[in-house]
Amino acid sequence: MMPAGGQESSSSSRRSLPCPSKNGNADWMSALHPRLWDIPLHHLAIPGSHDTMTYSLNRRCPISHTESPLLQLLARVLPCVTQPAVLKWSVTQVLTVTEQLDAGVRYLDLRIAHMPDGSEKNLHFVHMMYTAVLVEDTLTEISEWLESHPQEVVILACRNFEGMTQDLHEYLVTCIKNIFGDMLCPRGEVPTLRQLWARGQQVLLSYEDAASVSRHRELWPGVPYWWGDQVKPEKLICYLEHMKSCGRPDGVFVAGINLTENLQYILAHPSQSLRKLTLRGLPRLGAWVREQSPGPGPRCANIIAGDFIGADTFVSDVIRLNEKLLDC
Fold first, then answer.
1. CATH topology for 19-327?
2. d(CA 142, CA 154)
3. Distance between CA atoms of 251 and 242, rounded to whole angstroms?
4. CA-wise closest residue to 13 among 56, 61, 63, 64
5. Which of 113-127, 166-180, 286-300 has the lowest mean pLDDT?
6. SS (HEC) of the chain
7. pLDDT at 141 over 80
8. Cα separation of 49 and 94, whole Å?
9. How many Å apart are CA 190 and CA 42, to the nearest integer?
10. How far is CA 260 from CA 7, 159, 229, 310, in A?
């Protein structure tokens, strides 16, 4: 998918979004009403970020090898045009991972890849482009944040795994164990906050490679993600309502309120970007979020993940949904 024209860097997007108050929701889990400490995580409302690591993309980042051959050719022949154009449809976040955690995000969507021409063990993140940021460094940053917030719990979704061999999976899982250690909650029944605090555990790690999950009890199966693949908020909401009518998954799951462009839309809107598309849809999507309720019911929400965290009240709106559980 290749738009032409207009340039928009992640740094310019970053300047145009309001900065969240420092540590505003950094400890929201421990600040919940004590009655909510005994509710399993999959019955709480939890804010998440879609394609968490795209804030680190820039115009020098290489195009993913899974993109079309035409796009890769254009990137080699006309990089000054191609890279900025791809960038503005690749970036979904402008806050760093630490800033997202400070803002209250507790589900991180980590799409991991090994570049074909990269060094043997260096793993990167990917969304149309490869990040310069390394996976091991980011996991360490998350671990350090958790050490400073011992009663906060995160759900890390490791997925995509572009270019990953089984040896690289084993390498990554070893890194995960070394970095998080006893913070990892082994798979089993979805725990409550009180249970996790008693065990000193802070990380549920979802891993979308069944072979690796079968070998390591520290890994949880991939978290289901309701992805509507829609460019219009109204159609995305129709999709999400349809999924709710089918009944929620048994465990942790994600409802994505992220809009998705298609080639037809890109070609018809050459001056647009994913950021502009998202910000325009936030009022309608935000209203839908505020209508949701967490809990065990078949139509109840759990994790709700969005793009451009910090652009509105999304994170606080999701956290506030947990107050509805006190009325039950």
1. TIM Barrel (3.20.20)
2. 9
3. 19
4. 56
5. 113-127
6. CCCCCCCCCHHHHHHHCCCCCCCCCCCCCCCCCHHHHHCEHHHCCEEEECCHHHHHCCCCCCECCCCCHHHHHHHHHCHHHHHHHHHHHHCCCCCCHHHHHHHCCCEEEEEEECCCCCCCCCCEEEECEEEEEEHHHHHHHHHHHHHHCCCCCEEEEEEEEECCCHHHHHHHHHHHHHHHHHHECCCCCCCEHHHHHHHCCCEEEEECCHHHHHHCCCEECCCCEECCCCCCHHHHHHHHHHHHHCCCCCCCCEEECCCCCCHHHHHHCCCCCHHHHHHHHHHHHHHHHHHCCECCCCCCECEEEECCCCCCCHHHHHHHHHHHHHHC
7. yes
8. 11
9. 7
10. 19, 18, 5, 19
Is residue 50 part of the annotated active site? The answer reads yes
Of the residues 42, 114, 124, 127, only one is catalytic, namely: 127
Which one of 50, 124, 169, 216 is the catalytic residue?
50
Return the amino acid letter for 287.
A
What angle do the packed helices 135-148 and 166-180 form, to 10 degrees?
20
pLDDT value for 116 = 87
pLDDT tens, 41-55?
A: 999 999 999 999 999
Q: Which residues on adjacent β-strands are paired with residue 124?
A: 113, 134
Query: Which tens digit of pLDDT belongs to each residue from 243-270?
Result: 999 999 999 999 999 999 887 888 788 8
Beta-strand relationship, 219-220 and 203-207: parallel
Unique residue bearing structure tokens 């759990």: 302
Q: What is the mean pLDDT of the chain?
A: 91
Q: 10 Å Cβ neighbour count for 60?
A: 10
- Euclidean distance between CA atoms 94 and 97, whole angstroms: 9
Nearest to 38 by CA among 193, 187, 153, 150: 193
Both tokens of 289, joined, read 């979020």
Query: What CA–CA distances, in Å, run from 104 to 139, 187, 218?
Result: 17, 24, 24
Asked whether the beta carbons of 267 and 5 are under 8 A apart, the reply is no
Q: Is the pLDDT of residue 11 over 50?
A: no
